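Thread: "does anyone have the structure for this chain?"

Original post by V.I.:
We have the sequence but no experimental structure in hand. Need at least a predicted one for the grant figures.
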Amino acid sequence: MYLSRLYPRDCAVSEVSGVLGGRNDLMLFAFDGHRVVFEFFFSPSQVPQDLRLLEQAKADVKIAILLDREANPKLADEYFHKKPGHFPFLWLSYLMVPSQEEFCLALLRELVDEHFPKNLVLSVLLAKEPELQPSAGMSVLGTYTLAGPGASMNRAVSMISQQIRSMSNGSTCVSFSLDTAERSTSSEVAGNITVQY
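Reply from O.Q.:
Generated one for you, tokens below.
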């Protein structure tokens, strides 16, 4: 499967109960909590139901897989009539025809990675690692660096939040704050961090 080739550390699961009263066709679960949902559109009469499943799914990226126009031109027409502000989509033939494999892998990576920071590397160095459980009210200073394509303060905040929780050895991190980035480019954000326990 293409997803396991692109994201070997993540888990792709079919028929997931991602929406109350329905199942999403396929979901990719990332180790960091991000999710991608795929919904397959094969029947014009099912387009409203499939769109509802895709719209209501709790996922960072939502992708429609459409039956090709050559197989059934009514399906694409129905999909775009019902959803003019459409979700990103792939034609089914991209997934099924061997000669389309490299093209399909490139499209998948582009669609998923645009909102799903797989190629970002985060480094958080605290002046005092909380090996012993920090006491309430303790502040720990440190630095952070987020590097990779699309690095931004928003992504840094999200990723640092997860990393701080995993570094706390059972202690409760009440909050953390980042100063204005000392370095900020399209591929790196860096600065100082204060973690409050």
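V.I.: this helps a lot. The beta strands are 11-19, 22-29, 35-41, 61-66, 89-91, 121-126, 139-147, 175-178, 183-184, 188-196.
O.Q.: and Residues 101-115 form the longest helix (15 residues).
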